[in-house]
């Protein structure tokens, strides 16, 4: 049920090499005091020569085992002091391994703070500093969360039509994000892939747009036995996916570039359910599932640069994956026409559609976060700055956030933000 799960290690089924874990002993995990709660605390940890030496030793141990080092994936909490840890780690990687890909995922729990105003302010300040610093040292940065928004004002969490998850359980929300991440990263993890981490980053981050948004359809709503063209034709205006980057608004609009992955769909599923008949729509005329998805994406996003991958292997949801799926799903995660008379067995796998997008929606996220932090009276939060962040560095990071947000502006938004800048 997840009720007894307190930490990720409680349900970890993978054996970890001793060299792969570095424990920070100066701070307690979720204790009442001694928490790693401010960006400056995390940053100062990585300025300790003994800590740096230990990290580099562990890193070199693995790097030396690589036949072909593409780069690094960094998964980092944004809401607490690990934001500062991640910023220094990515800076270290950027300095030591220039030319290698650094793909960074900034994570935030759905619920936090418990009504504590200081924790809420710290969360927003940590997040603003984290996004500015992590994106500057990474090839690509993606905020990932089921929160409605990253700013001060709470928004309802993301909902999914065929998942009944408990937003208060990190065990549930992290499972959804993990399934999306598993699909999003497939293009450079496959042995058959032609692209690398750097190639993916370069296709999405042109024009200074280092931040991307994630979308996912979990499960991808395909009826049992239906073809891919028939499934996609049911959504002529927008894909049935949900935004996993907390932009505050969920509308699907245009995008500049995107990488889309569909997994769990058989290669022959592009064939119409009525063989022998002439194609009834352009999607039915496609010769493969890859071509079907590509044509559909070009129809929905005509001006965007789109790459797509279709994989037959689904996302496996065997234990310890939580069983929070709708009874409308088969064991393989496909939709039934009507609810079963008796409750079905556990869902063992699901098809997933996921995408990374460079999108104007990111202007809402970045500029909204910038405006929220600007409203704060930072003199009231001297304890945050006593942890090691200078006021000047903080303001510089905020300006970086504002500059970054401008990369995603469309015409009318640019005029609006210029007016706001004048009034400031």
From TrEMBL:
It comes from the Eukaryota. Its main location: cytoplasm. It is found in: Cytoplasm. InterPro entries: DML1/Misato (IPR049942), DML1/Misato_tubulin (IPR029209), Tubulin/FtsZ_GTPase_sf (IPR036525). GO terms for biological process: mitochondrion organization. GO terms for cellular component: mitochondrion. Transmembrane segments: none annotated. Residues 4-190 form the DML1/Misato tubulin domain. The keyword rRNA-binding does not apply. Keywords: Cytoplasm. This is Protein misato 1.
């Amino acid at each position: 049920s997840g009720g007894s799960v307190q930490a990720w290690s409680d349900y970890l089924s993978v054996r970890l090499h001793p060299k792969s874990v570095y424990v920070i002993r100066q701070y307690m995990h979720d204790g009442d005091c001694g928490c790693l709660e401010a960006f400056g605390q995390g940053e100062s940890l990585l300025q300790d020569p003994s800590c740096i030496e230990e990290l580099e030793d562990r890193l070199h141990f693995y790097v030396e085992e690589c036949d072909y080092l593409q780069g690094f994936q960094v998964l980092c909490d944004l809401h607490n002091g690990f934001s500062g840890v991640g910023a220094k780690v990515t800076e270290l990687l950027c300095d030591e391994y220039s030319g290698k890909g650094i793909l960074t995922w900034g994570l935030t729990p759905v619920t936090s703070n418990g009504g504590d105003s200081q924790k809420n302010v710290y969360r927003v300040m940590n997040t603003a500093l984290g996004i500015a610093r992590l994106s500057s040292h990474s090839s690509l940065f993606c905020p990932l969360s089921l929160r409605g928004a990253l700013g001060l004002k709470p928004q309802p969490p993301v909902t999914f039509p065929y998942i009944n998850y408990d937003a208060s359980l990190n065990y549930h929300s992290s499972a959804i994000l993990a399934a999306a991440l598993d699909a999003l990263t497939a293009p450079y993890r496959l042995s058959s892939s032609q692209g690398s981490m750097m190639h993916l980053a370069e296709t999405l981050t042109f024009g200074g747009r280092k931040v991307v948004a994630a979308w996912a359809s979990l499960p991808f709503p395909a009826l049992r036995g239906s073809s891919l063209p028939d499934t996609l034709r049911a959504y002529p205006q927008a894909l049935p996916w949900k935004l996993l980057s907390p932009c505050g608004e969920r509308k699907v609009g245009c995008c500049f570039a995107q990488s889309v992955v569909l997994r769990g769909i058989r290669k022959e599923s592009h064939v119409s359910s009525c063989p022998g008949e002439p194609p009834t729509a352009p999607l039915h005329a496609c010769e493969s599932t890859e071509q079907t998805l590509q044509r559909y994406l070009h129809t929905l996003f005509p001006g965007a640069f789109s790459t797509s991958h279709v994989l037959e292997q689904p996302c496996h949801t065997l234990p310890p994956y939580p069983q929070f799926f709708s009874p409308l799903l088969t064991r393989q995660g496909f939709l039934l026409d009507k609810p079963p008379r008796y409750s079905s067995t556990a869902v063992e796998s699901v098809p997933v559609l996921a995408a990374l997008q460079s999108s104007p929606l990111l202007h809402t996220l970045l500029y909204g976060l910038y405006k929220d932090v600007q409203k704060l009276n930072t003199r009231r939060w001297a304890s945050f700055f006593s942890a090691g962040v200078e006021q000047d560095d903080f303001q510089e990071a905020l300006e970086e956030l504002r500059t970054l947000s401008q990369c995603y502006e469309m015409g009318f938004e640019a005029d609006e933000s210029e007016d706001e800048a004048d009034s400031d």
